[in-house]
Write a structure and sequence with these properties.
alpha+beta, two-stranded antiparallel sheet, about 90 residues
Length: about 90
């Protein structure tokens, strides 16, 4: 499912116009992004938690050329699914 399909389903389920649903979906994504930029986790009970994890510096390899590269330490977004989501997906 892509963003347009998600907007369509939100519009249908909530009886909103597609424009209003698109604003709502975009707002949710924007606010999750803003919280993660501030290093704050976003917990949606029953669904899961969006958080920022630290990645250590490492040596990587370009698969095309075989050349080794040094990757710097960085922060990366992550998602930890909640118990209910795990149960429903099984």
């Amino acid at each position: 499912m892509n963003k347009a399909e998600l907007v369509e389903k939100v519009a249908k389920d909530s009886r909103l116009s597609k424009r209003a649903a698109a604003r709502a979906v975009t707002s949710v994504f924007d606010n999750i992004t803003k919280a993660l930029k501030k290093k704050q986790p976003v917990t949606l009970v029953g669904f899961g938690t969006f958080l920022v994890r630290k990645r250590k510096a490492r040596t990587a390899r370009n698969p095309k050329t075989g050349q080794t590269l040094q990757m710097k330490a960085r922060r990366a977004p992550a998602f930890k699914p909640g118990k209910q989501l795990k149960k429903q997906v099984r």
